[in-house]
Amino acid sequence: MFSFVLTAALLLAELASGHRLRGLHGRAHALPHGPWTHADFAKRSSEDLFVRISHDRPILVPTRDDHPQRPVGIKADDAPIQTNKFYANFFAGKQDNATWTYPYSVWWSNDTVKHGHGLSVSHTDRGEFVYGAGDPAQSFEDPLFQQSIALSARELQNGTVLTTDTLTAFAVNVNLAPWKGAKPVVTFPLVQGMAFVTGVYSDATVLIQSQKHFSNITDLRLGSYGLGAAVYGWSARLSDGSTWLIYLNPSEYSQRPTLRMTDKGTLLGPRGFTGTVQVAKNPSGPSGVEVFNKAAGAYPAGATISGSVSGKTGTYTLAWTKKGVTQNPLLMFALPHHVKSFDRTTAQGLTSVTLAATTKGIATATLADAFTMVEDNLPTDISFDPWSPSLGSVGSKGAPGGTISDEAKAAVVEAARIELARDVVALTNLTSKYFSGIAFSVYARALYAVHEIAGDTSFTDEALRKLKSAFDRYVNNQEQNPLLYDEVWKGIVSSGSYGNNDSSNDFGNTYYNDHHFHYSYYVYTAAVIAHFDPAWLTKNDGLNKLWVDNLVRDWANPSTEDPFFPFSRAFDWFHGHSWARGVLEAPDGKDQESSSEDAFSTYAIKMWARVTGDARTEARSNLQLAITARSLQSYYLLATDNDVQPPRFVDNRVAGILWDRKVNHTTYFGDVTAYIQGIHMLPIVPTSAYVRTPAFVRQEWDQYFAGNKSGHLTAAGYAGHVYVNLAIADRPGAVESYEFMKGLTPSSPYLDGVSLAWNLAYTAALGGSLNSNSTMNSTIYRRV
């Protein structure tokens, strides 16, 4: 919950820094919702972070119900469909691609010869990963479709139909029925982190299969664990040497059911069985059996998230809905970033059972009905100004870290005069939402740099007018490939792929790819406009604010009750980062390339919340940024001491592209080193130094780029990103970065997609050319 101190501090910072409530036109600005009283603060301190932005229908874009890709097999009630979550392969294409729940992967077999017609389950130990060439290895991956065990029913044969229901952010029900229209004979509640794969059977004959074959099966005696006679267990040894535990929990008391091996690949269970069948891989022998026995019969059927913030500390809880033998605790696998931030109570449930979690390190089985995590270093003091762990915010008048030198200010003004004279209306009139958004943000950063950091206001009124004029085209939906509201999946998409079924158009925006990347640039730009002219928020009957709010709702909706958008489409609160892939089939699972744009998407919302006076959304964004930083530093940004990803891969320094199944040190657009490393840098904004630690930046620079010894700085535009990123490392890095930028002109090929005015201000502020009034801040931001 908010503390009074946090909210008051935000307002005081607004008054004291670059948010001085005085904009370009020299008039005092009231907060958008009027002055806040102590009672307002007290009220807000009791409110949860996950509350609605709006539940109104989007009215500024047309509506269509003919999306080029239709969902397959969804038993929906017209609720918004989660497009970017882990289980999307179950409603895409032939429904036969895998889903990763961590640590398992599961898929619909539907193949009598190979895998049967049930749900196949696989787990791969690290020793079985396939590594790419090189040292460090270019890639690693989990071998695909290596069925360890499968839960099925004899009633499931040719003609089996798969449907899904209860599609939420953390869980889904996968149903298998013998024919279309028939009642499902088994339902699988799939939940991220589940330790057991659970099948809920309804009057069916239990069939358990293994492509790897069973070597033997032995009974487990569970009475000593207090589970009662209703839960029965077996330990099955597979031919590959792995051990899987099997538990049956009849819905009504009965004698011990039987499991008999009918052939090396098949276990036949009771007929007419109603209840649950669970399987789990046991890597730990008798001690592992003890752990799994304690939780057998209980299973998660869904999850909720809650969060609170007080000062610089944030707490969030993933709480699971428990079914089955509810008197037993749940057993859930925690990823490394969870474990490192567990509160004391949750940490008490950690066990000795661990399993490799494909691209997320080693997962630890934890006895807990909920995970509570704590982040104690929220970026509450980060605003529009450049920021570093050692200096804090630097740049605008009154910034705690001081200002940049007069020489740097003059260089910023010289660059901005050229950049802001450009035709921003034309620069943003593109067919691509992504590239138009970048053009908006480049112009906005140049405007902020010259007005607030360099302090020159002589030409910024006209620049702001041009920026607002360009933005008006989008608010009025008059751009190329205009946006529309999709009634099928329920979201705001580009119209670019309608009528041509070209899923590659604008990186797949129509198919819900990359929305957090694309739309965040517009939200950031709107925040800069409103920073200078708060009255812009209420002009045109508030349509400017409404348009931006709807973009935020599309990819980062905080409400589970919004009838027009799903909750948190992009950001995965279990994994701690976003997924970029939407509804297209994904043989390797969900994926994301640009970790830095992921973090930027949350920073954009944070700044939008600040200028609109939405303290709860800003607090949630601060918490989300802290979670993102921890997650990215575990899985994407690989410092020399990274102990999460495989040692053979860590020395690549960045993940490249991270999927559920594999990680490949590459990009979608080329293998040039500056591309691969740089896509995890851009755009360089105040939160960059919060996510990308100085030590990591120095390691990466020295390995790949120092002195251009390896020729990796030949990729013009990306070389610019790499150089400005160097300023994060340390003062010598900032000086080198600033001197490099000072030698460029705004038309330099090194500045593709960036602003020289902003880069000069940023590199100077991080130590490249500081004013004498700048002092080091003794508070060093650290990741724990």
Automatic annotation (TrEMBL):
Catalytic activity: Hydrolysis of (1->3)-beta-D-glucosidic linkages in (1->3)-beta-D-glucans
Span of domain Glycosyl hydrolase family 81 C-terminal: 404-760
A Pfam family of this chain: Glyco_hydro_81
The organism's place on the tree of life at top rank: Eukaryota
Stretches of the chain forming a coiled coil according to its record: none
Keyword Electron transport among record annotations: no
EC number: 3.2.1.39
A GO CC term assigned to this protein in UniProt: cell surface
GO BP annotations, alphabetical order: cell wall organization; polysaccharide catabolic process
Glycosyl hydrolase family 81 N-terminal domain sequence ranges: 67-389
Signal peptide region: 1-18
GO MF annotation list: endo-1,3(4)-beta-glucanase activity; glucan endo-1,3-beta-D-glucosidase activity
Top EC category: hydrolase
Keywords: Carbohydrate metabolism, Cell wall biogenesis/degradation, Glycosidase, Hydrolase, Polysaccharide degradation, Signal
Family the UniProt entry places it in: Belongs to the glycosyl hydrolase 81 family.
Protein's name according to its UniProt entry: glucan endo-1,3-beta-D-glucosidase
Taxonomic source organism: Colletotrichum destructivum
